[in-house]
Write a structure and sequence with these properties.
Elements lengths: L14 E2 L1 H4 L3 H5 L3 H6 L9 E2 H8 L22 H12 L6 E3 H12 L5 H15 L6 E3 H7 L5 H4 L7
Antiparallel strand pairs: 1-2, 3-4
Helix pairs in contact: 6-7
Length: about 160
């Protein structure tokens, strides 16, 4: 907390800017931290208000398995599907509903940096697309993305334990 009891990240209007997120060590050290940060902002917007910030942050809250949905309530932001949609948009930078080979390569380059050669990156991307691309359009749709991650514990990988 700041000296006046406010968060040092929030400006006087109660909004956050992309550079404010850079002060969070876990994001600044994350190879795809810039993509995660940009997910908090609507296209063309340079600030996010508190309510929008909390809505995005809710994707990282652990799923409550004991909670049952009655079909009337909207799907919570921390549901498996919503977490997967959030992860999908980190790859789908042009927001066309598909992860292209180039978008996948951009993420791989960022995450793996100097650990592998460009040839190895191309091979990893090729294999990932071959395995996930069920309709063989040389891209990965959200449904293909979801199916390829069926056995992954997405709740564990995309959860921040709040106040624990």
């Amino acid at each position: 907390m700041g000296f006046n009891g406010t968060s040092p990240l929030l400006d006087q209007r109660g909004e956050l800017r992309p550079e404010d997120f850079g002060a969070i060590r876990e994001l600044s050290m994350n190879p795809i931290g810039d993509r995660i940060i940009s997910a908090f902002f609507s296209p063309g917007k340079e600030t996010v208000d508190f309510a929008s910030f909390v809505r995005i942050l809710a994707h990282f809250h652990p799923t409550e398995t004991s909670r049952s949905r009655d079909g009337v309530q909207p799907e919570p932001a921390n549901s498996r599907t919503r977490k997967l949609k959030f992860a999908f948009q980190l790859y789908d930078q042009d927001r066309d509903g598909k992860i292209s080979r180039e978008e996948l390569l951009q993420v791989l380059r960022t995450m793996l940096e100097m650990q592998v050669t460009e040839e190895q990156l191309q091979s990893i991307a090729e294999r990932a697309i071959q395995e996930a691309d069920l309709d063989q359009d040389d891209a990965i749709s959200f449904d293909e993305f979801r199916k390829s991650l069926e056995k992954v514990d997405i709740d564990h990988k995309m959860s921040i334990r709040f106040l624990s």
